[in-house]
């Protein structure tokens, strides 16, 4: 009977070792699957990122010409307005200076309203 018990215990120990090996293999399998899933997800992310960057570059290239054209038109319009303002300044400058000088030398002496006339 002791041999039978020892043999039963030995069988249980072997079964426990086998179960531990199976559990360890399952853990390793799970870890490997997680690594594989992460690397696959990273590949998908990189591919999506590459596609979006190419779309952005194409969009940027198609609109870059529009921006430079618009900037050139605005620069031209600004120059025209500045020239117009300069021309008006040159035309009106003498009139404004003469008007200011005329006001400066126009003197009408009169008593201040707060000054009372002293009657003798």
From TrEMBL:
Keywords: Coiled coil, Hydrogen ion transport, Ion transport, Transport. The keyword Ion transport applies. V-ATPase is a heteromultimeric enzyme made up of two complexes: the ATP-hydrolytic V1 complex and the proton translocation V0 complex. NCBIfam families: V_ATP_synt_G. Residues 12-54 form a coiled coil. One of its GO terms (molecular function) is proton-transporting ATPase activity, rotational mechanism. Belongs to the V-ATPase G subunit family. Subunit of the V1 complex of vacuolar(H+)-ATPase (V-ATPase), a multisubunit enzyme composed of a peripheral complex (V1) that hydrolyzes ATP and a membrane integral complex (V0) that translocates protons. V-ATPase is responsible for acidifying and maintaining the pH of intracellular compartments and in some cell types, is targeted to the plasma membrane, where it is responsible for acidifying the extracellular environment. This is V-type proton ATPase subunit G. GO terms for cellular component: vacuolar proton-transporting V-type ATPase, V1 domain. InterPro entries: ATP_synth_B-like_membr_sf, V-ATPase_G. Pfam families: V-ATPase_G.
